[in-house]
Amino acid sequence: MAKIFTVASGKGGVGKSTFCTNIAISLGESGKNVLLIDGDAELRSLDLLLGVDEMVLYDWSDVIKNRCDSDKARLFYNENVQLLPAPIEYPENLTYEDFKSLLSHYSENYDYIFIDAPAGVGELPQIYAKCSDTCIIVATADEISARSALITGNKLIKLGIKEENLRLIINRFDKKAVKQGKLLNIDEIIDKTYIRLLGIIPEEKNLMYASVSEKRISQYSDAKIAFSNVAGRILGKEIELYL
User: Fold this and answer.
1) 120-138 pLDDT, tens per residue?
2) Where are the domains of the chain?
3) How far is CA 108 from the centre of its chain?
């Protein structure tokens, strides 16, 4: 039975989809079967990031509406990582029960399912979160992002998500900018969000280039090592924060 994660953010532009893509690949490299679900219908991007956009025929709304078999909607990035693309538009009157039923088609065949939610805590992210075991909130090291992560965490707790099931990813962390006082340091971000830290992904230009060119980052890059370490913590390993 898959462990289900919703990956959320208080604001857009923090690299949530890039995080989803690379953490799935890292877990896949550890031999785990991972399903990515693109939950952001209006800004669909996971098919582009994985380089499978030309293969899209169906999406998860087709499964919900019984327009295709659940297997036909999946796209294979590789043997261990698959994608369930987002629809062009959200299905009307989508309910928690609808999405929970969708997940039931796949949960027995995967170790992990990651749902890439749209930014904010609107109706759809709330449905995804309620269907999940853990909610990962992605933030960058600036005041606005930290505050939005705090607000997002508080709203999820009010929704019924347990505080211990919230985790924080600090993304695009620029050590030089932090030392210059231009961005928050790690302790400041944790103090401002009140969310338990899962990992830190350093700022790296090659990661941005990889995202837009459908190429994978080097096995030896700082970002790749950071993603591998986050994957290890998800797997239950005790791994010190790498930065």
Assistant:
1) 989 999 999 999 999 999 9
2) 3-135+204-234
3) 20
Mapping DSSP to helix (H, G, I), strand (E, B) and coil, where does residue 75 land? strand
Return the DSSP state at 171: E
Beta 34-38 vs 81-84: how paired, if at all?
A: parallel
Handedness of CA 90, 96, 98, 102 (dihedral sign): positive
Q: CA-CA distance, 103 to 5, in Å (whole number)?
A: 12
In order of 136, 170, 194, 235, 241, the CA distances from 238 in angstroms are: 18, 18, 21, 9, 10
**Taking Cα atoms as reference points, which of 209, 48, 202 lies closest to residue 116?**
48
CATH 3.40.50.1950 fits 3-135+204-234, yes or no: no
At a CB cut-off of 8 Å and minimum separation 6, what does 39 contact? Answer: 6, 86, 115, 116, 117, 118, 124, 125, 128
Residue 18: closest CA among 202, 185, 198, 236: 202
- Residues whose CB is less than 8 angstroms from the CB of residue 200 and which lie 6 or more positions away in sequence, other chains included: 169, 170, 173, 186, 226, 241, 242, 243
Distance, CA of 98 to CA of 102 (rounded, Å): 6
Take residue 171 and report the two structure tokens written for it. Answer: 């993304």
The pTM (predicted TM-score) of the whole model is 0.94
Largest Cα span, the chain:
55
Give pLDDT tens digits for 215-227.
Answer: 567 666 889 999 9
